[in-house]
Amino acid sequence: MKLWKYFLITIISLYSLNMNATPVELDRMAVIVNDSTILTSDIDTEIKLFKANAAHNNQTLPPDSVIRTQVIDKLITDTLQKQEANRIGVKIDDNRLNQTIEDIAKQNDQTVPELRESIEKAGVSYTTFREKIRDEIAISEARNALVRRRINILPAEVESLATILNQETDTSVQYKISHIQLRIDSDSDSDKSKVEALAKSIVRKLANGESFRTLALTYSKGPKALEGGDWGWMRKEEMPTIFADQIKMQSKGTIIGPFRSGVGLHILKIDDVKGLQTVSVTEVNARHILLKTSIILSDAGAKKELKSFIQKIRNKEATFGELAEQYSQDPGSASQQGELGYQSPDIYVPEFKHQVETLPVGQISEPFKTVHGWHIVEVIGRRQVDKTDAAQKNKAYRILFNRKFNEESSTWIQELKASAFIETLKDDSYDN
């Protein structure tokens, strides 16, 4: 679940439970993460919000010490990703933030003032809420940009998967899965035996009806531990390979595992299963001009130059294609007069995706910024495709991309943690 969704549900829960903010002790540093710090107030706030959400949903929780450990791990991960967002210069302006908050309000059947009132009545600062949303958007963009660079998809992989997809029926199967990961920290036989015994014990507890969510919160070291191991709805093709290889059309409620991977032992539960009807795909053909900022060219300068291009096109002093060939710093499309060809919008970074999905055909956007630089874009055409060879190859590419993105995201986060300076400071108030 995205942070803003988690945060929104929680503040509503706080309001419904009439939980009022209480004075806190003098704030202290709890964890040092490179040049950033996580404060005790950050941890306490996350725990308070998490517990309120659990109480609202009548969920059983493990001991406070376990919840605190999981919360700290999540805050460390978020801090490292935010540092990466700052390093590559991801900035979320107020217009983008305001639009996201408007979307949140609509999904909650509220106006923005009503959303703000409910947040503040729950004892949560609206400024804190806005900055949490801003951070989550920035983290998501940094992760997308940096993990994309690590993904290499060979044409032969696309062809092979497209062939398999062509042989499938119109109905595909989707699974709602939950996951527990137990880490093996050393190669010693003793450590392996202990983890294997714990895994078998967890499976027995699940067979006896104990809550998967509670056991995941207590024991899991996987990426969804704080969500109770919930990965949500996924097709097999979208799952990490270690999950997909284990699922053989099992029914709802099936427990799978324990099974081993390079990082430890895993247990899966199939919470639900449903079939999905295949639908047509909208593809967009767009062209763009990209300018990258540098010591010589500032953000303001790039924006001004792109505006001048728009004016030249409107005055018929030059065509979009001519300007793209001459000035665009995306070599792949510049040689094609800026044209990107028919593609699913999902392959683009969020700001670019938004533009190609919402622009009318033939209209040129205002200059906008992504992690790649400053752009103007024009949508040339849209088409609906359904089960054509090209559509199947695009679908195969997206499946492969999503699978590798999930796998590489986990690896990327592990590498961030391994290379970071992380120090947890002593806090006697939490000792048992």
From TrEMBL:
UniProt cross-references to NCBIfam families, sorted A to Z: PRK10770.1 (NF008038)
Protein name: Chaperone SurA
Lineage, uppermost ranks: Bacteria, Pseudomonadati, Pseudomonadota, Gammaproteobacteria, Vibrionales
Keyword Nucleotide-binding in annotation: no
Known role: Chaperone involved in the correct folding and assembly of outer membrane proteins. Recognizes specific patterns of aromatic residues and the orientation of their side chains, which are found more frequently in integral outer membrane proteins. May act in both early periplasmic and late outer membrane-associated steps of protein maturation.
PANTHER family xref list: CHAPERONE SURA
A biological process from GO: protein stabilization
Top-rank lineage group of the source organism: Bacteria
Organism: Vibrio mangrovi
EC supergroup of this enzyme: isomerase
Gene Ontology terms for molecular function: peptide binding; peptidyl-prolyl cis-trans isomerase activity; unfolded protein binding
Gene3D superfamilies: 3.10.50.40, Porin chaperone SurA, peptide-binding domain (1.10.4030.10)
PpiC domain span: 172-272, 281-381
